[in-house]
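Sequence design from tokenized structure. All designs in this work follow the same two-part layout: the structure record, then the generated sequence. An example of the structure record is given first.
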């Protein structure tokens, strides 16, 4: 509904101003990407009125859409450029993939892997409805092993907490590429930026604490019985 859209648009604008003033949004590019993607289209219908509160929200199957400040911070650190091929591990709602798509389009693309089939379908529907399926492909599987058929990647974004950097992801990163990943235990992590230099050396930087749902898979945490 048009009236609804205007209410959401204004709420989104207030959120963006807040994220700018707190220093999470630093660049015009990320600001514009977050302005363009309607987060309310990526949350369950009954939670739409909370879409522009800066907090994670449940999306079913015990998983969450990340808080907007975390999406902003990770996207700034990832720094996707137009034309890049990006791998996201943990599609969830598809929202973060859509924000990244805004930064790599029109010639780049995002491959996002989700281990829970029902969420992969949720992400696909959200991306189709908002038109981001032009640049984003959703795959079902264990993304801790990356997605070899489309490798190598300019950028890799992991949106679940890992015990360490999965070797497969490092392998699938291009020289000169960058990986953003929360590393820690099942509940608390630190945000790491890992860069592979042109001559293949690995550099890492730490960017403060965060709390993601665990990366569950062969190169992540074991599934709990
Ligand atoms: N990026 C998402 C968004 O914009 O809504 C939020 C992701 S949510 C915090 C983390 C997601 O990672 C969950 O949907 C979870 O099922 C998924 N996940 C966990 N381990 C995974 C794995 N090994 N491969 C792919 N997805 C995984």
């Amino acid at each position: 509904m048009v009236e609804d859209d205007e209410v959401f648009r204004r709420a989104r604008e207030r959120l963006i101003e807040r994220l700018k003033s707190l220093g999470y949004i630093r660049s015009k590019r990320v600001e514009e990407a977050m302005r363009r993607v309607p987060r309310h289209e990526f949350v369950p219908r009954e939670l739409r009125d909370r879409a522009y509160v800066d907090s994670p929200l449940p999306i079913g199957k015990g998983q969450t859409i990340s808080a907007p400040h975390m999406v902003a911070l990770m996207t700034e650190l990832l720094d996707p450029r137009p034309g890049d091929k990006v791998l996201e591990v943990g599609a969830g709602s598809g929202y973060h993939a859509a924000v990244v798509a805004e930064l790599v389009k029109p010639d780049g693309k995002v491959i996002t892997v989700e281990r829970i089939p029902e969420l992969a379908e949720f992400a696909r529907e959200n991306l189709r409805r908002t038109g981001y399926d032009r640049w984003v492909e959703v795959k079902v599987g264990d993304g801790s092993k990356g997605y070899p058929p489309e490798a190598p990647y300019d950028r890799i974004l992991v949106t679940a907490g890992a015990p360490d950097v999965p070797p497969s992801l490092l392998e699938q990163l291009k020289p000169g590429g960058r990986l953003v990943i929360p590393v820690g235990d099942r509940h608390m992590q630190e945000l790491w930026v890992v860069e592979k230099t042109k001559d293949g050396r690995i550099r890492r930087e730490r960017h403060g604490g965060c709390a993601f749902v665990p990366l569950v898979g062969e190169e992540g945490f074991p599934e709990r019985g």
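The chain has six helices and nine strands. We note this feature because it recurs in several other targets discussed in the main text.
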